[in-house]
Design a protein that fits this description.
Elements (H helix, E strand, L loop, with lengths): L10 E12 L2 E13 H4 L26
């Protein structure tokens, strides 16, 4: 499915997500079933910039998560 696209080209991928447990471990599948050029499916010409790692908020000591 990727032969029609080149490096750096934006695409839209439709896929199914599934998970299963086996012997106490969890396995996840991402099954792609359609790949299209992003320009073919864009509803508007304005696109929000993708967030980067630098944009992520830093953790604070107020977090009470167990991990």
């Amino acid at each position: 499915m990727l032969r029609n696209f080149g490096p750096g080209q934006e695409i839209e991928v439709s896929f199914n997500v599934s998970s299963r447990e086996f012997n106490g471990k969890y396995y996840h599948n991402l099954d792609a079933w359609r790949i299209a050029g992003a320009s073919a499916s864009q509803g508007s010409s304005e696109q929000a910039a993708a967030p980067t790692y630098e944009d992520a908020p830093l953790p604070t000591e107020e977090d009470d998560l167990p991990f």
